[in-house]
Design brief:
The chain is an all-alpha fold. It has a domain of about 40 residues. The chain has two helices and no strands. Helix 1 packs antiparallel against helix 2. The longest helix has 20 residues.
Length: about 60
Amino acid sequence: MCINVGKADRIIRTIIGVGLVAYGVMTQSYIVAGIGIIPIATATIGFCPFYPFFKLNTGCKKD
C-alpha cells in the first residue's frame, strides 16, 4: 500500500479532524465528533481510500 497522503495534507487533515472532534464534544454532537475521527485516522495511517478513485496522490511520487 503506497502512502497517498502527503505531509501538508496530513497537517491539514489533523487540524480539521481535531477541530471537528472538539466542536462535536463541546456541543455534545457525537456524530460530528465521530466524523472528525476520519481525517485524523487517514492522516495517521497516510492513506485515503477515496484518493485512488479520483486519481489523487499527494504522498509518493510515481516514476
